[in-house]
Amino acid sequence: MDYKIVADTIVKHCGGRANLVHTTNCMTRVRMTIANPARADIQALKAIDGVLGVVEDDTLQVIVGPGKSSKIADIINEIVPESPTLNSAELKAMQALEKAKKPTRVKVILKHIANIFVPVLPALIAAGILMGINNLLINSAASFALTHHIAGTDNLSATQLVLEQRHLLGLSEFFGLVSKALFSLLAIYTGVTSAREFGGSIVMGGLLGAITIAPQLPVLGLIPGQGGLIGVIFAVWVMCLLEKQVRRVIPDVLDVVLTPCTVLTVMAAALLLLIMPVAGLLSNAILHSMNGLLAKGGIAAGFMLAALFPFLISLGLHHGLFPIHLEMINASGHAPLFAIQIMSNSGMVGAATAVLLLTRDPVLKKIAKGAIPTSILAVGEPTIFGVNIPAGFAFITGSIGAGFGGMMVVLLGVTTNGIGAAGLSALPLIADGKYLQYIIAWLVGCLAAFVLTWTTGKLRGYDKETL
Prior knowledge:
mainly alpha
């Protein structure tokens, strides 16, 4: 792919440089805020060589695949001025479109959560994989120490002693340090990105996040981390509202001193006395509900949840589940819901493989050949948007196939101790050494989706269509 040509073409079909207000990216998508959507040629965007799909939402999302999205977004930001000048007609069109959309409150909340965690996602994936690799080293050493009756010393535990003998202790400590630097301080990063999302002072947002994990909290009858990331996000949202109101009444000459002092004092008190205790109850209720659903729903719950996740991914709402995954990890060290979620990857790969073998469309074959390996290794968006949604029925059969993978995850007791990408990249995240069980669950989902898609395609005569 020539990233410069793709970026230039995307800008052209989005209505030109002046029509792009803001451009960013997530793992697989270039996300653009468009001034006047009527000037964007969606069909032309979809026809660009290298583009796997286009999603029209509050932002225009062009799916190009992992790695490529960041490079193309960077080039677009070099091409497009930061603050394009909009004429009055374009401003009115943009405002009218925003007013006409009237998204539901739930969708607005999920979008905010997604925007908060998308910037943290690369670090979450990296830290999660390093944590998983470190867990492999530690589990292997612990098992060896147990079976060979190795005792620890005054300075080293039995596991550390085995790692030292294998010359891996330093590497293990390094991996542990890097991964813990993210997960133990995630409240601070979440506070920063929340403040950016809600239009407040980002350092003040990080400071509120830091308060929720301060070691002095037990003196006040609180537990570090109580209320979790839900409490941090809510506190920062309130802080941003308060900050805007305070700035209206504070004289400009005193703003730099009085505004942050006033906002911090009020919000710290509210956080400690009200938000953390209430958010703690809410977090516990959510965790109890999800654990109860998985425990009582069994394989039926696994099927339904895994089959639902491709739809959430197609809408870009799956990032809204990050707080739940992370709260599960903080509470129990495991994220069973994430293990079910990543089965969507297996269903999409199986369906896309069947489409590759069935279709007579050379363009779709070309896209499938590039999308399937990417989805096997990491993320499912390339097969979702590049292959299965264009094929139509394959998205449905792939989702059903993913459900069978979710059933196997519950049946085999597969869970993760981190979150990140799917496919083979998720192997280091699998908890309790159940790597073979994860592979079996993934293959079951993939095979079920392949059989369903192949059979449906044959019955529909899809293999005889010239698209």
